[in-house]
Amino acid sequence: MTINHKSKFGKSSLSLAVSIALSGTLLSSPVFAAEEETVSENVEKIAVIGSRSAPRSVGESPVPIDIISSDDLKKNGSTDMIDMLVTSVPSFNSRAQPISDAATLVRPVNLRGLPSDSTLLLVNGKRRHRASVIAFQGGGINDGAQGPDISVIPSAALKQVEVLRDGAAAQYGSDAIAGVMNFVLKDSAEGGSISVSQGEYYEGDGATTTIDGNIGLPLTDAGFINLSAQYKTADSTSRSVQRPDAAAIAAGGNEFIQNPAQIWGNPELKDDYTVFINSGFDINDKHSIYAFGNVSSREAVGGFYYRNPHNRGNVYSVDGGETLLVGAVNGDQSTCAVVPANVPNVLDTDAYKAMVADPNCFSMNQIRPGGYTPQFAGTIDDMSFFAGVKGEIAEWDYDLSAGTGSNKATFSLRNSLNPSLGLDTPTDFETGAYEQVETTVNLDFSRLFDVFNGLNFASGFEYREESFEITQGEEASWIAGPYADQGFNIGSHGFKGFGPESAGKNDRDNIALYTDVETYLGEKWLLGAALRYEDFSTFGDTLNYKITAQYSATDDLAFRASHSTGFRAPTVGQENVVNTQTSIVNGDLIQTFIAPPTDPLAAFYGGKVLEPEESINYALGAVYQSGDFFLTVDYYNIEVTGRLAQSSQIEVEAKDYDALRAAGVEFPELISAVTYYTNDFDTTTQGIDIVGSYDTELLAGDTKFSLAYGWTDTSVDKFNEETTDPGKVRRLEDGIPAHRGSLTWGQNWDELSMNLRANYFGEYYATHADDTSDWGSEMADSAVTFDLEVSYTVMDSLTFSIGANNIFDQEAQKLKDGTLGELGAVYYESGPFDYNGGYYYGKVNYRF
Question: Where does the signal peptide begin and end (predicted)?
């Protein structure tokens, strides 16, 4: 037997090997553009990730791969790429981020129960850069994760998405412990589309408008340029109730209390636009060049926690609300009267009025008499550009490419204070920026040798450099004002600006060498092996391997297995990030300082130099394909040692103040707790993914049933009890549903089509915001939601669609008794589906 698997468009898969970039890319070429478009419409779609051999159908792959076409992605009311993928890929999850600091701006995801930075992202087979945003409050699994920004990729730019659900660090490098996602850009040289969609939640908020388009243009007869663009705006949502403490103060006569005082809901999105370009040109029949990239930007404005005007620590009080924190202009607080704060409304007390009348004395109530709720805003600017040349030299296929990408998050805080500046404080602050920049160079070779029924050999080299830069915020956002030593908080409250001690740029580089071999032994066995060596400038080298096998038991049934080792290097950001966040601990808000693990404060409480995670991955599966019926079942087991995570909040105790000052920590008495990154965990994650489809005829039309089911179980084998509390361990183990699935019924008639999807979410450990205590947690119930879309096509080019996500408005899990409404919230925002409720929409699409 020779390796000569026919694709649906008639060419041997191996005849397309010339078009393979050995980094996993199906190299765009106008010669194959029309043929590739046919693939995206076919049941037996062709994948190029998971193997460096010729592309093959999903059923012939020795590792589990999902392929989602652009059309399938769009059968969803959401225009966010994350939401589109959640309904299509088993064991892929994400949650809303209503009050989560920077995670509000870039939502983290997880594949196979691992954090977002354990999944490698590719665009056209080339490594996609990470986001600059680090998920400080990432819902347990993603706490401290720094993954790529998937939301920046619009469906209008995509031909298909390939998801490799298998450890692949030995093939593709660091970050591929959970798997790989490859976003394949459209490469047509003609035609295009434009669409407009608009929708809102049943509650009447969150109105979203999206306009996107795509056009293919010829680049002479030998090339193409394909352009895509998307523009989006979205209003904020609110699923809030008035906080009891704010309501009590309002009932006491304080007229400055807002209702609700604090918003739990989706952030407002402004001017969210992205432009992608993909291009290719044949130099001759053996060599071609290609280039692709993007420019994107969006602004998001989200909520924060309410600051109570009677008891908020180091702003309004230092004794839990017994008395107001009163500052003295002359520095002697004993000259100012004591103002009791444990009253219905401090503004009406004689003591407060007397204090205000004294020009030497002040409190922050004079600026914010009703307390305040800061608004966290950020602008995300993202760009990338890759270019390369590929072809054939002396029977060897080659691909030489280079590219760069950057993601910058510029932060601001509104409606806040720098209490240490007293009454001279501004209320809006530019707090600084994070920027992630990555540059990658690849040189890859492959060749098919006529031995063992055909042996594909691949080898290559990669150089990568990445940097993480913190830009200083405006002075008022970080400076210790004249009243810091009187107990007033330093910096913009809620999100302290980055000071000169935090600002700076850190970088590292690494080189990698790999070898990949794949061959058939006889007619039934497909074997593969990969070996990858990487050397990092910051922590040394690593060598990893992968072995794959597939056995074709019959023409319809095949068994597959893989075993691999992997690693994930700590990001430059995780090693050097500095931040201040507001956290909930036992229902109370505390100010937490996030420090690099080698910072004097972190080191005092156990911080150490970070080491890479290491993993061992086992997988076993089966593929059955007979006629129009297709089914895959895959079991996986992933052991991760030295797993990187953000520590729990470690209390800064008064007995340590002198030692901390001696170590160089300023004003330790104003820091409630510290957290840092640490190799804290050993975990084992196992699961089963089931993917199936069946095509038939029903109700006088073409019918397709699709199933995607995932069972995921994570156990923490070891953790450091000094830096991690049991609640955080529980979130890692049970924070996402163990069972999740979707069953889709697609029905097509001539001009009319319908797509009905049922989504199942199993029980999960629900927590309120980032609190890991028993105060705000419980096991949440399972739930089922339904999505429906109906489309009608006019003149083969104009399509009208209406639909709804969560069409029966299934309510999210409410907070348990005792915490319901306590901080203004009704639902656990850590739930696996949108707590905003049902969402209806309409779309118009024109193709030309």
Answer: 1-33
What is the C-alpha separation between 303 and 647, in angstroms, rounded? 24
Give the C-alpha separation, 763 to 766, whole Å: 9
DSSP secondary structure string, 8-46? TTSSBGGGGGGGEETTTEE---HHHHHHHHHHHTSSS-E
Region 99-107 average pLDDT:
69
Q: Write the burial class of residue 679 (CB in 10 Å: 0-12 exposed, 13-18 middle, 19+ buried).
A: buried
Count the helices and strands in the chain (H runs, E runs). Answer: 10, 41
Say if CB 315 and CB 833 are below 8 A apart.
no
Helix (H) or strand (E) holding 228: strand 223-234
Residue type at 552 in one-letter notation: S
Decide if 93 contacts 110 (C-beta within 8 A). Answer: yes
Angle at 812 between CA 809 and CA 814, to 5 degrees: 135
- 291 and 281 Cβ atoms separated by less than 8 Å: no
Nearest residue to 140 (alpha-carbon basis) of 721, 645, 634, 741 = 645
Q: In this model, does residue 33 exceed pLDDT 70?
A: no
- Cβ neighbors of 654 (< 8 A, separation 6 or more) are 669
Beta carbons within 8 Å of 704's beta carbon, 6+ residues apart: 693, 694, 695, 696, 744, 745, 746
Q: Which residue type sits at 64?
A: P
Other CB atoms within 10 A of residue 794 CB: 10
Q: Characterise 321 by phi-psi region: left (phi > 0), alpha (psi -120 to 50), beta (else).
A: left
Look-up of token digits 């029980």:
763
Phi, psi angle pair for 157, to nearest 5°: -90, -5
C-alpha–C-alpha distance, residues 46 and 58, integer Å: 6
Q: Are 241 and 204 in contact (CB under 8 A)?
A: no
Q: Work out whether strand 268-282 and strand 287-303 pair parallel, antiparallel, or are unpaired.
A: antiparallel
The whole-angstrom separation of Cα 691 and Cα 91 is 11
**d(C-alpha 88, C-alpha 68), whole Å:** 7
Give me the pLDDT at residue 49, please.
66
Q: Distance (Å, rounded) from C-alpha 496 to C-alpha 416?
A: 10
The pair of three-digit structure tokens given for residue 96, joined into one six-digit string:
């809303």
- Answer yes or no: are the C-beta atoms of 470 and 433 closer than 8 Å: yes
d(CA 330, CA 766): 49
pTM of the model: 0.90
What are the pLDDT digits (tens) for 660-704?
999 988 888 888 889 898 998 899 999 999 999 999 999 999 999
**733: which 2 tokens?**
């183990």
Chain segment 622-654, per-residue pLDDT in tens? 999 999 999 999 999 999 999 988 888 888 999
Nearest to 185 by CA among 49, 26, 402, 391: 26
Taking the CB of residue 342, how many other CB atoms lie within 10 A of it? 13
Show the beta-strand stretches assigned E in 479-601.
504-521, 525-536, 540-552, 557-568, 579-585, 588-594
DSSP string, 364-397: GGGT-BTBB--EEEEEEEEEEEEEEEEEEETTEE
Alpha-carbon span 253 to 369, nearest angstrom: 12
Q: What SS3 state is found at 613?
A: strand
Is 826's pLDDT higher than 70?
A: yes
pLDDT tens for 757-813 read: 999 999 999 887 777 777 778 899 999 999 999 999 998 899 999 999 999 999 999
- Which residue shows structure tokens 């983290």? 108
Residue 740 and residue 688: Cα distance in Å, rounded? 11
Exposed/middle/buried for residue 54 (C-beta within 10 Å: 0-12, 13-18, 19+): buried
User: Cα(336)–Cα(134) distance, rounded to whole angstroms?
Assistant: 43
